[in-house]
Amino acid sequence: MRLAVGTEIKCPGRPGQKAEIADVAPDGNTYAVVVQLNGGFDRKRPRLRPATLAEVGDTITYTFVDPKSMPSALPREEDTPRTLAQAP
After folding, report:
1. How would you write the chain as a 3-class SS string?
2. Residue 67 main-chain phi, psi, to 5 deg
3. Taking the complete model, does pTM exceed 0.85, yes or no?
């Protein structure tokens, strides 16, 4: 799936932080994605909480799906109905 420059994205681990894709450029066999972060740095607090700012080398996952609409856990397999395409 390709997301365009300007697409708003969110990090489930940083719900107060707003971000958007600022640039996408080919980088060999992959793409380099520049993300612009807007807010969510807790500047109003006297001291930053641990893990508020990412460290160099940290891997942070972003999604275009609002994390608030995601379930906190997947249902148990026995609670998930089978579809016709699945073997019994």
Report:
1. CCCCCCCEEECCCCCCCEEEEEEEEEECCEEEEEEEEECCCCCCCCCCCCCCCCCCCCCCCCECCCHHHCCCCCCCHHHCCCCCCCCC
2. -55, -25
3. no
